[in-house]
């Protein structure tokens, strides 16, 4: 059995941990998002991939959901003293990751290979694949003009209106053979409760990835990142709105219509189930807030078991 998890940062990492702690761990590979990558102080930072690695390696700051635990900020303080912009909070331990990544990158090592080496250092055994080894960067158009994703997200605290979103460089990006092969041979594809526009959208936008999912015989099940019609954290609501989609389960379904077989929604959104089912997809209604390890393991186990059951019934 082969399971694929499409994952962004914080929501994606919670789902990845749920699978890593479940009986499906050995069967799962993750496809992560590289479009939030950016350069700071001459270093290449890949926030969503590092969030996955730090979470699965139990090195994450659990309070924040990102960055390293037991972190210090001496280097950042020194950079500030040099008059550098330090709104991107990069801790000392975290900076070592970015130094190592940048060094390998300059030697011509692929982003996929660098990810593997970082994962190995943190004892992460669940493979993390990249949708592409090329540089793709999400940009957000706001009343202040086009911003990099991190400028919008971290520097501006998602406060600006979102007028438009682009994945810069995506047209020329090549999908990695490992991601395509993983999708083609998957029995179940789980879409994490990640931002559907920037995290999952940027993975799907790499030429060939969405087409491979549509063509695959895998059962595709998404977990909604909305609870009670609201995001748990982050700008998914603004981004759905700017994409002309409603901020509810229907809006999430609209992002994935061409390939989704089932959607997992929170109990507080159960009134959306009838409409979703009328569109021909299956719906699992269950608590989807992942606060504890138990929450994560239960939700992801339920999700994969539901997908396997539905797939069996469909085949019968
Ligand atoms: P980012 O890259 O760090 O912004 O993280 P993701 O794109 O992976 O996830 C962001 C989305 O995760 C937000 O829209 C949140 O609403 C959603 N999210 C975070 N935690 C949870 C959770 O425990 N349950 C659910 N259902 N959604 C969550
Ligand atoms: Ca992200």
Automatic annotation (TrEMBL):
EC nos: 2.7.8.28
CDD domains in UniProt: CofD_like
Origin superkingdom: Bacteria
SUPFAM superfamilies: CofD-like (SSF142338)
InterPro entries reported for this sequence: CofD, CofD-like_dom_sf, FbiA/CofD
Entry GO MF terms: LPPG:FO 2-phospho-L-lactate transferase activity
Pfam families: CofD
Keyword terms: Magnesium, Transferase
HAMAP family on file: CofD (MF_01257)
Name this polypeptide is given: 2-phospho-L-lactate transferase
């Amino acid at each position: 059995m082969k399971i694929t998890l499409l994952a962004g940062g914080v929501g994606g990492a919670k789902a990845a941990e749920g699978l890593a702690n479940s009986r499906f761990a050995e069967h799962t590979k993750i496809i992560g998002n590289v479009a939030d990558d950016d350069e700071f102080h001459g270093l290449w930072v890949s926030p969503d991939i590092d969030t996955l690695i730090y979470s699965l390696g139990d090195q994450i700051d659990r309070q924040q959901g990102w960055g390293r635990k037991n972190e210090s900020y001496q280097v950042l303080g020194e950079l500030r003293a040099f008059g550098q912009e330090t709104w991107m909070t990069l801790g000392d331990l975290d900076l070592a990751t970015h130094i190592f990544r940048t060094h390998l990158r300059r030697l011509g090592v692929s982003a996929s290979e660098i990810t593997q080496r970082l994962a190995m250092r943190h004892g992460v055994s669940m493979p993390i694949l990249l949708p592409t080894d090329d540089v793709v960067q999400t940009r957000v158009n706001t009343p202040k003009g086009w911003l990099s994703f991190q400028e919008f997200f971290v520097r501006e605290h998602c406060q600006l209106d979102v007028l438009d979103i682009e994945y810069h460089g995506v047209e020329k990006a090549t999908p990695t053979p490992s991601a395509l092969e993983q999708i083609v041979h998957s029995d179940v594809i789980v879409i994490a409760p990640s931002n559907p526009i920037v995290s999952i959208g940027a993975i799907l936008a790499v030429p060939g990835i969405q087409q491979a999912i549509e063509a695959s015989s895998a059962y595709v099940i998404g977990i909604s990142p909305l609870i009670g019609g609201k995001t748990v954290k982050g700008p998914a609501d603004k981004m759905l709105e700017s994409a002309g989609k409603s901020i509810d389960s229907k809006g999430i379904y609209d992002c994935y219509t061409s390939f989704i077989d089932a959607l997992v929604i929170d109990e507080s959104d159960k009134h959306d189930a009838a409409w979703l089912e009328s569109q021909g997809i299956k719906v699992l209604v269950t608590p989807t807030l992942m606060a504890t390890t138990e929450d994560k393991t239960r939700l992801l186990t339920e999700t994969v078991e539901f997908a396997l059951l539905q797939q069996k019934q469909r085949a019968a």
